[in-house]
Design brief:
By secondary structure, the protein is an alpha/beta fold. It has a single domain (about 5-360), classed as Luciferase-like domain (TIM Barrel). Helix content is about 40%, strand content about 15%. The protein contains 12 helices and 13 strands. It has helices at about 40-55, 70-75, 95-110, 125-130, 135-155, 190-200, 210-230, 245-255, 265-275, 280-290, 320-335, 345-360; strands at about 15-20, 55-60, 85-90, 115-120, 160, 165-170, 185-190, 205-210, 235-245, 295-300, 300-305, 315-320, 335-340. The strands form 2 sheets. The protein has an 8-stranded parallel beta barrel, surrounded by 8 helices. A hairpin with a 2-residue loop joins strand 10 (about 295-300) and strand 11. The longest helix is centred in the middle third of the chain and has 19 residues, at about 135-155. The radius of gyration is 22 Å and the shape is globular. Mean pLDDT is about 90; it is low at about 1-10 and about 380-395. It catalyses: an alkanesulfonate + FMNH2 + O2 = an aldehyde + FMN + sulfite + H2O + 2 H(+). Keywords: Flavoprotein, FMN, Monooxygenase, Oxidoreductase. Catalyzes the desulfonation of aliphatic sulfonates. One of its GO terms (molecular function) is alkanesulfonate monooxygenase activity. InterPro entries: Alkanesulphonate_mOase_FMN-dep (IPR019911), Luciferase-like_dom (IPR011251), Luciferase-like_sf (IPR036661), SsuD_RutA_monooxygenase (IPR050172).
């Protein structure tokens, strides 16, 4: 099908973000073959590409195996024009006042392009390395006190709190945010404690890419919890993407992604997830595939192969642009308005998503001309240039 004939589908267009791989990148999972280090030049290359291609923002992950997300966001903000940066606050690694100053600075440097991702969970062993020794549910009680102070000073007030976990006296923020009253708060978590916290504090709830029926159940639970507190929450989903011109090409690309992955590597990764993580969401991801590679399609076009070795988001939508668009419309009908995507390697897959999938979703703008030459009509034989479907930044 010609790109020019594709029409936008669904109701309101999805907000479509991409991922900055600050722990490294490559074309194969579970191997160092063709590994790409997360040096600044490569991360900048991805950021400038997705800014130009029309992605609305990027998620920058946090963790001991990642380059620092705040410094990375600041560096990439100076290299981009429209891209928003979803950056993590992990309560317990610094005080609310310190994080407020940090976030305000990045919001100002980026001219209002900061989004805040609240990360409370994680592996207890890694958290202990950061000086966090609280059990699972207590971390959310701690986060509640943390954001009581953060919210007060972010909105221009002065905060004093003598809490069980957080103590602050006369905390304030002297350099205000560009965004008012402060940047939006994103959050993801599947436990009861996480949902209760999200319902009272956050603006957008994020789920990993579970089958639609499970996502529907989770959305209903979060909506009810938020309504009980007199609030409304919007919803996003975190997914990998393997999009090709045909379903068959996409299925083959998925197989290739794990073709160098050994059974021993899978077993070691799954054991680590079981023994070192107390994340309910991580356990839900692992349960989709059970560590087995013989039945990875857990819903139509929803492939769990990434989760065989990757922690966190472990599912990908696999197929042609039309097929994946249909799957995304199913999630959109449940209430999802934002997609945070990724693919291996992240530079090339960003182009594939933007060039193949975006036109079907009604994202991007038509612009540009084919110039007569190797890639133009007539291959340099004097044919008149024609308009083609190009991609510019979505607003």
């Amino acid at each position: 099908m010609s790109v020019e004939t594709l029409k936008p589908t669904g109701s309101d267009p999805l907000n479509f973000f991409w991922f900055i791989p600050t722990s490294g990148d490559g074309p194969y999972l579970g191997t160092d073959d063709f590994y790409r280090a997360p040096d600044h030049a490569y991360l900048r290359e991805i950021a400038t590409a997705v800014d130009r291609l029309g992605f609305g923002g990027v998620l920058i992950p946090t963790g001991a195996n990642c380059e620092d997300s705040w410094i990375t966001a600041t560096a990439l903000a100076t290299a981009t024009e429209r891209l928003k940066f979803l950056v993590a606050i992990r309560p317990g690694t610094a005080t609310p006042a310190f994080y407020a100053r940090l976030a305000s600075a990045v919001d100002r440097v980026s001219n209002g392009r900061l989004l805040i991702n609240i990360v409370v969970g994680g592996a207890p062993k890694e958290l202990a390395g950061d000086g966090i020794f609280l059990p699972h549910d207590a971390r959310y009680d701690h986060a509640e006190e943390f954001f009581e102070v953060f919210e007060t000073i972010a909105k221009g007030g002065t905060a004093t709190l003598d809490g069980k976990y957080i103590k602050a006296e006369g905390a304030k923020l002297n350099f205000p945010f560009v965004q008012k009253p402060r940047p939006p708060l994103y959050f993801g978590g599947s436990s009861d404690a996480a949902i209760e916290f999200s319902a009272g504090r956050t603006d957008k709830y994020l789920t990993w890419g579970e089958p639609p029926a499970q996502v529907a159940e989770k959305i209903a639970t979060v909506r009810a919890a938020a309504a009980a507190k007199g609030r409304e929450v919007t919803f996003g989903i975190r997914l990998h993407f393997i999009v090709r011109e045909t379903d068959e090409e996409a299925f083959a690309a998925a197989d290739k992604l794990i073709s160098r992955l050994s059974d021993e590597t899978i077993a070691a990764a799954q054991e680590k997830f079981r023994n070192e993580s107390d994340s309910v969401g991580q356990h839900r991801m692992a349960a989709l595939h059970g560590g087995r590679r013989d039945n990875l399609y857990v819903a139509p076009n929803l492939w769990a192969g990434v989760g065989l070795v990757r922690g966190g988001a472990g599912t990908a939508l696999v197929g042609s642009p039309e097929t994946i668009a249909a799957r995304l419309r199913e999630y959109q009908a449940l209430g999802i308005d934002t997609v945070i995507g990724s693919g291996y390697p992240h530079l090339e897959e960003a182009y594939k998503v933007a060039e193949l999938l975006f036109p079907v979703l009604g994202l991007g703008r038509r612009s540009g001309e084919v110039i007569s030459g190797d890639f133009g009509t007539g291959a340099g034989l004097g044919a008149r240039p024609r308009r083609i479907a190009g991609l510019a930044a979505a607003v």
